[in-house]
Write a structure and sequence with these properties.
The chain is α+β, with helices and mostly antiparallel strands. The chain is about 25% helix and about 20% strand. The chain is built from 1 helix and 2 strands, in the order E-E-H. The longest helix has 16 residues. The protein is globular, with a radius of gyration of 12 Å.
């Protein structure tokens, strides 16, 4: 998944910690389910950082044509 690789631009910062990993993802009736590794959770304790990560994940998944 592209989110695991971080931003392409040098002036951008990653929304996810280095330990972020997608274990699996699947699509059921236009809904995308994602199983994430819990290894990144200790680094997402700040509410602002957690919300940034969640928004980035939602935007990325909703950009797929098959996901509503």
């Amino acid at each position: 998944m592209a989110l695991e690789h971080g931003p392409a631009g040098k002036d951008l910062s990653a929304a996810f910690p280095e330990a972020f990993q997608v274990k699996s993802a699947w699509l059921e009736e236009n809904v995308c389910y994602v199983n994430l590794s819990s290894a990144a959770l200790p680094e997402l304790t700040e509410p602002q950082r957690l919300m940034l990560a969640i928004r980035a994940l939602v935007r990325s998944l909703c950009s797929l044509d098959a996901v509503e």
